Structure formats: C-alpha cells, structure tokens
Write the structure tokens for this entry.
Amino acid sequence: MAKREAILSVIYDAWGGMHPGAWRHPDAPKDPAMDFQHIKYLAQTAERGKLHAFFLADSLAYALEKDPQVLSLTSNVARFEPFTLCTALAMATQHIGLALTASTTYSEPFNIARMFASLDHLSGGRAGWNIVTSTGEAGANFNGFQPGRDDRYKRASEFYDVVAGLWDGLEDDAFLYDKAGGRFFDPEKIKSLNHKGEFYQVEGPLNISRPPQGHPVICQAGSSPAGLAFATRVAEILFTYGLDLEASKALYKEIKSMAAANGRDPDHIKVLPSLGIVLGHTQEEADAKLAQIDALADPQIGIERLKGLIDYDLAPHDLDGPVPEIPQTQSWSKTMQDYYLGMAREQNLTVRQLSLMAMRFDAVAMSAQAAADHIENYVVNEAADGFNISFADASGSLEILVDEVVPELQRRGVFRQDYQGTSFREDLGIPRPSARPQ
Ligand SMILES: Cc1cc2nc3c(=O)[nH]c(=O)nc-3n(C[C@H](O)[C@H](O)[C@H](O)COP(=O)(O)O)c2cc1C
C-alpha cells in the first residue's frame, strides 16, 4: 500500500521569523514585511519545493507587545494587507495555494465573498480563506466592537453561510458570451440570496462569476469547543496547535469523527498541526542558530508578551529568580496560561527562561533529517495529514526545508513529486463544490 503523503504549508510571517531576535540575525533580510521582492522570493522558493500552500497570517491590531519601547525592539509592526499582497503573489507564482487570513468579526460577508472570488480568478483557482474570528485587541480599531467567543463563532457561522451562499448563487455556466445570439449571461443562472439572518442581511447576487474552485479552500484554526464545532462543519484544512504524538493522534481522530458526524467525508478535512522550527543542515547548526537569535532578543520582549499570555506582569521579578506562584485568572486564553505556567512549574524555570519560551513561540531547533522524521512519524501514524510550518528565524530555514527536507520526504515516499491538477483544491484532493440550488 502506498504511504500516506504529507500536506505541507508554510506560514509567511511578516515579522521575518516568529522569534523577536530573528530580524537581527546577520543573514536576515533588512525589511521582512514590506520588501515585496523578498516576499516574492519566499513564495517562489516554497513553490520550488512543491509545497501546497503559502499561508498568510494576519492581525487587525498593532502587535502582541503593546509597550512602545518594547515594541520598538521587535519587527512585528508593519505588514501588508493580505488580499493586496496575495494578488501580487498570484502574479509571481503558478501552482502554490495562497491561503490568507480574513476575519468574520471585522468584515462584511459581501466584501469577503467578492474579494475571495476575485483572488480565486486572478490566481487561477489557488485561493484559500483562513477564517478567523479575531481574538486580541482588534476591537479598539472597529468601534470598540469585541463580542465574546461563543458569539464570535455564532456570527462566523452565519457569515460563512452567507459567503458560501453568494458564491453558490452563481452557476458555472451563467455567462454565455453569445455574440451571435446577443446574450451575455443567463439571468436564470445568477440567483439572489435574500439572506435575512440574526446578524446579516444580504440580498446578492455577487457581481462576479463563480470562483474557479467553486469555493476557495476553507481553512480554520478554532481550538475551543465553539471553534472546533465550527471548523469541523466548514473547514477543509484545520490548523491545530503542535502537540505530542499521542495527543495529536487523539485530536486527529476526534476531528475526523466530528466531521463525519456533520455528514462530511473525513478525508476532506485535512488536519495540519503547527510546527515551529529553526532548521540547520545538522542538529548542531540548528541549535547554534536558535541560541544566536535567543541572544539577540531582549528578555523584556518575552516578559511583555507573557503579560498577555499568562495575564501577569513578571517585570518586577528578578530575571534569574524562579517564576513566582501566579493565580489562575479569566484571561483571554486559559489554554495559554495553563501551558506556560505548567511549563514553568514542571521545569523549574527562571523568569528569564520562561521569557525565552514565550519568545520562541514553541519553536524547536532541528536538523533536516530530524524534521523529515518528525513529519513522517506524524503523517504515517495518523496524527496529522501534514504540517503548517512556521520558522523562528528568517535566515535559511525555508531553503533547508525546500532543498533537504522535501527531497528526503520524497525519497521516503511521503511527499509527492509535483503539484496535482491546477487548483489548490485539486492539489489537496478535495472536491470542488457545485452550486447549490436555492
Ligand atoms: C496555525 C494558526 C494560525 C493562526 N493564525 C491566525 C491569524 O492569522 N489571525 C488570527 O486572528 N488568529 C489566528 N489564529 C488563531 C485561531 O483563529 C483561533 O482563534 C485560535 O486557534 C483559538 O481558537 P478559538 O478561537 O476556538 O479559541 C491561528 C491559529 C493557529 C493554530
């Protein structure tokens, strides 16, 4: 029997590496966020490696580190608006999926349906929508609007239905271009939606033709009960957090059975855990690179980041003293609080060490061989369908992934030799939805 093949996506992160020390590495680009030639190079490199997707994260607020003095030590301030950037990248690539993040809390469904339909046409069927509901502080930029989590997902669910309904109001052969007969389109094949719901009222139809993929590939990363319920109803790619093998296997099984319970083919929801890495040709080289960027990051950045993650300010504490007992609170992310405080307790970390963990965002140093082993192990053991890879550094890990990890996975028969079909959907082996009768 053929081995299961991995799906690989890379996160383009405008900060130039997730680690706040990454931008200061001598080999890092001067401007990772606004230098389009550099971003184009990254997307083309990912495509050279036959990776499935170039994934753009996004945020609608300034940054995790709010203190301007601390923020000024990091590169995570500027970023392109993702639709604009993806349109430019669509012109610079031919095969790779372009998955971008757009928020249901701070957008209108008509605009989103139209922008994704446009991007899908312009890219020849390579658009993907990472549906987020936006946690964090974005509300301050949107009239102070910040619904609670369950409400955000209720809105997201209706938002998605409106967007899908708008796409489905356009039949594939609605446009006739019949010069001889004098009919440009068939009005019977372009339907209004007339949606009147709890949150949205949208008449439609959409003023564009049906997206080449029917629907752009739907991606989601909900991890709360409300988030997972939504994701297993609509997502075709589900991004999860990196867990150990056994926990990943259990989550993988749960996601597939939740999708089946929603009447879906479990094979049409691809589970991609996060994999945060720094790659080296050897383990020693990877370790040295991580140590080098660790040393280039001021511990204040981690302390500031932890304020949000653990809901506690460690600044008054001695950097080389132990992490104090910190009360559990109703922070925005209980998962993050539990994770960091649990790690501090179990490993007896000092404040400086915990700050480093927050700055690394879970990234680990790996040789190309170790990364190939990790990917193969998870995919073959049904703990994942592939990975969504983020790099802590901006100085060579993507190239090692493409030039060493991918060929190694191909040799082992766990990664394909070339793109399949022409659209992102075909490449993933996920069927194209047909327009639903309305
Ligand atoms: C790989 C990955 C990428 C994500 N990218 C974004 C992003 O770009 N923007 C954003 O607002 N949230 C992003 N998120 C957060 C998720 O959308 C989601 O809110 C989070 O996983 C918590 O789940 P919950 O909303 O169900 O609590 C990402 C999560 C993961 C795992």
